[in-house]
Amino acid sequence: MNRFKLLFLRHFFNKTPDNFILFVAKILGIKIGVNSFFRTPDYVDTLNFSIGKNSFINKDLFVYSHNYTNAKITIGDNVFIGPKVKMVCVDHKIGSSRQRAGEHIERPIIIGNGAWIGMNVTIMPGVVIGEGCVIAANSTVLKNTHANELYVGTPAKSIRKLN
Ligand SMILES: CC(C)(COP(=O)(O)OP(=O)(O)OC[C@H]1O[C@@H](n2cnc3c(N)ncnc32)[C@H](O)[C@@H]1OP(=O)(O)O)[C@@H](O)C(=O)NCCC(=O)NCCS
Predict the structure, then answer these.
(1) Count of the separate structural domains present in the chain
(2) CA–centroid distance, residue 61 to ligand 1 (Å)
(3) Which of 134, 150, 152, 157 to mutate to test the pocket of ligand 1 (most atoms within 8 A of CB)?
(4) Ranges of the chain whose pLDDT falls below 70
(5) Rounded to two decimals, what is the model's pTM?
(6) Which InterPro entries match (predicted)?
(7) Separation of 13 CA from ligand 1 center, angstroms?
């Protein structure tokens, strides 16, 4: 059954219009809390994905997780995610010159309650975005962020604490 759901997710879910996406996501078993809204994504390839309550995911979310067990994506409550945000849970160790994409690695991503992720941000494998963080548009987050700080740039660095 999950295999069928995944196939459906990859081929049809990502083309489902905004006003229908919540309904389809819930049928597929993606956990979405009350009062959360999810616009049509660019690409989501996992059912291993949950969204808390009062959260908003804007258009063209790109999730690369391949439904691997350890590549779970957890989005908290009251989170706002801007358009074209990328969450990448899959990585490789750098291999030998014969094949640089070496040993496969999969890591979860967690977005803490209250965070705001600006548009076109990339979040790398294993990153935990602390509660109440703001990640400025176009940043790339390589490491965990402390709660209630503003992070900017590539790699994203904290530029100030937020009240
Ligand atoms: C971060 C943001 C919220 C601004 O917060 P702010 O507290 O008003 O910050 P400021 O504009 O005072 O900028 C503070 C510093 O960060 C820099 N900065 C802000 N946003 C930046 C970004 N996206 N990329 C690089 N640097 C950025 C500013 O240049 C400034 O640097 P300086 O002190 O050297 O001049 C805003 O820039 C942003 O990224 N918003 C997201 C917009 C978005 O994605 N909208 C889609 C709908 S969700």
Answers:
(1) 1
(2) 20
(3) 152
(4) none
(5) 0.95
(6) Hexapep (IPR001451), Hexapeptide_acetyltransf (IPR051159), Trimer_LpxA-like_sf (IPR011004)
(7) 32
